C-alpha cells in the first residue's frame, strides 16, 4: 500500500480512517507496510496448521485403532473434536495468505463466504464439544457410584451430531453477511452488516455462547469433579494419581482461558465502542491493528493443543502412539540399506556361496547353521584340523572377502 499513517492519529470514526469500512463491518485493519509483522502472523498460522493437521490426524488414527477394544463416550467426543480441529486447520492457509498480503483477500467473494463460514462453524463446534466433554467426565465419575445411567458411546454420537447442528445454526449470520468489500483500494474479507449495532449484537452473542457460558460450564464441571473425588476419597491412597488428575484438570481450564480470553476481550472492547459506551481512540486502533491478529492466532492455536491435552496425556494413547512410532520407524528402516562395514574386520566375516551342506567346514557346534544370509561369522570352535583340511581342498570351493 502507498498510504502511510503517522503515529499521531486523531480519534475518529472507522469510516473516516478507512473509507469503505464502517463500525458495522468486521475486518482486520491493514498494517500498511509492516512486512515483518505480516510475516510473523503468516508464520504463526502456518505452524498452527501443520501441527494441527499432524496432531489431529494421529488422534483420529489412534481412536479408530481402539475400536476393537470398544470406545467410550469420551473417545467419541475426542474423535469429533479432532475431526473438527482437522477441518479447521484447512482454513488456516487462507488466513496465512491473507495476512502476508496485508489482510487483502485475494480469493474472491465465494471463497470468502466459504472460508469464513467454515472457520466460525468449527470454532463453535470446538467449544461445544469441549463443554460436552467436561460435563460427561463429571457425569461418568458421579454415575459410577450411583444407579444413574452413564453416557454411552452411542449417546455420545447423537450428542455430537446435535452440537454440530447447534454450531451450524449459530453460524448462519456469518454465512449470510460474509462478504468482500473494497477498503482503500484493497479487497477485504469481512462481515458486512446492513444496519447500525448489528455487528455488536452478533459479537455479543458470540462472546456469550462461545466463551462465557462454556467457560462457566467447563470450570464448574471440573471443580465438581474434583470435589466429588475428594468427598468419596477416590484415589486417596494414591497421591501421585490424585495430583496428576488435579493438574490435568487445571491445565484444561487454563489452556482454554489463555487461548480464548485475549480474543474475546478485544471483541468485547469493540462491542462497547459500537454501543457507544466507550469512544473510538488511538489505543483501540493500535490494538485492533497490531494486537488483535495475534489474539486470533492464539485462539486458533487451541486447535493444535487439544490433541495433546485430551488425547496424548492419556496413558493408553501414549502407549499406542509409541508403538505406532516404532512400527513406522521399522517400516521405514526396512527400505534403507542394511549392509555392514565388512572391511572393518575382514578376519571375522567371510562371504561364501550357498553350496550344498557338505561343502562347509565341520564345526564342533551342532547348533551352527547357515540360513539365508550369505555373510557368516566363523566360529572359534572350528578346530585346527578342520581348518587345515579345508585349506587343502581344491580351489573349486571358492571363498571371497566382501
UniProtKB/TrEMBL annotation:
Which spans does this entry mark as compositional bias, Basic and acidic residues?
383-393
A GO CC annotation given for this chain: external side of plasma membrane
First-listed, main subcellular location of the protein, grouped into a coarse class:
membrane
**UniProt keyword annotation of Membrane present:** yes
Q: Which UniProt keywords apply?
A: G-protein coupled receptor, Membrane, Receptor, Transducer, Transmembrane, Transmembrane helix
Q: Where in the cell is it found?
A: Membrane
Q: Where is the G-protein coupled receptors family 1 profile domain?
A: 55-310
- Return the annotated region ranges for Disordered: 337-359, 381-402
| Transmembrane portions of the chain | 39-62, 74-95, 115-139, 151-172, 207-229, 249-271, 291-312
| Top-level taxonomic group | Eukaryota
Q: What is this protein called?
A: G-protein coupled receptors family 1 profile domain-containing protein
Species, as recorded: Engystomops pustulosus
Amino acid at each position: 500500500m502507498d498510504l502511510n499513517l503517522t503515529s499521531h492519529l486523531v480519534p475518529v470514526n472507522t469510516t473516516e480512517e478507512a473509507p469503505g469500512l464502517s463500525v458495522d463491518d468486521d475486518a482486520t485493519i491493514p498494517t500498511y507496510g509492516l512486512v515483518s509483522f505480516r510475516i510473523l502472523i503468516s508464520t504463526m498460522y502456518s505452524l498452527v496448521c501443520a501441527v494441527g493437521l499432524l496432531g489431529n490426524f494421529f488422534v483420529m488414527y489412534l481412536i479408530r485403532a481402539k475400536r476393537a477394544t470398544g470406545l467410550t463416550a469420551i473417545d467419541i467426543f475426542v474423535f469429533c473434536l479432532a475431526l473438527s480441529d482437522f477441518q479447521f486447520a484447512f482454513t488456516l492457509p487462507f488466513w496465512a495468505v491473507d495476512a502476508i498480503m496485508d489482510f487483502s483477500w485475494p480469493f474472491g467473494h465465494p471463497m470468502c463466504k466459504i472460508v469464513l463460514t467454515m472457520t466460525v462453524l468449527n470454532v463453535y463446534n470446538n467449544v461445544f464439544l469441549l463443554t460436552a466433554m467436561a460435563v460427561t467426565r463429571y457425569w461418568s465419575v458421579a454415575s459410577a457410584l450411583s444407579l444413574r445411567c452413564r453416557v454411552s458411546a452411542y449417546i455420545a454420537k447423537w450428542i455430537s451430531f446435535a452440537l454440530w447442528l447447534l454450531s451450524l445454526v449459530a453460524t448462519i449470520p456469518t454465512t449470510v453477511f460474509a462478504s468482500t468489500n473494497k477498503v482503500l483500494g484493497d479487497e477485504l474479507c469481512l462481515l458486512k452488516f446492513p444496519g447500525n449495532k448489528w455487528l455488536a449484537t452478533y459479537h455479543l452473542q458470540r462472546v456469550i455462547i462461545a466463551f462465557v457460558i462454556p467457560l462457566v460450564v467447563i470450570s464448574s464441571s471440573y471443580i465438581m469433579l474434583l470435589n466429588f473425588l475428594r468427598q468419596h476419597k477416590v484415589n486417596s491412597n494414591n497421591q501421585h494419581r490424585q495430583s496428576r488428575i488435579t493438574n490435568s484438570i487445571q491445565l484444561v481450564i487454563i489452556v482454554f482461558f489463555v487461548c480464548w480470553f485475549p480474543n474475546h476481550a478485544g471483541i468485547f472492547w469493540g462491542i462497547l465502542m459500537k454501543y457507544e459506551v466507550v469512544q473510538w481512540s488511538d489505543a483501540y486502533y493500535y490494538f485492533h491493528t497490531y494486537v488483535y491478529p495475534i489474539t486470533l492466532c492464539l485462539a486458533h492455536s487451541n486447535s493444535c493443543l487439544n490433541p495433546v491435552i485430551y488425547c496424548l496425556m492419556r496413558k493408553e494413547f501414549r502407549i499406542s502412539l509409541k508403538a505406532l512410532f516404532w512400527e513406522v520407524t521399522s517400516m521405514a528402516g526396512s527400505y534403507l540399506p542394511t549392509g555392514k562395514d565388512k572391511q572393518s574386520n575382514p578376519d571375522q566375516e567371510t562371504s561364501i556361496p550357498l553350496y550344498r551342506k557338505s561343502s562347509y567346514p565341520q564345526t564342533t557346534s551342532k547348533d551352527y547353521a547357515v540360513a539365508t544370509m550369505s555373510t557368516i561369522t566363523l566360529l572359534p570352535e572350528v578346530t585346527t584340523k578342520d581348518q587345515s583340511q579345508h585349506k587343502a581342498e581344491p580351489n573349486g570351493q571358492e571363498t571371497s572377502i566382501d
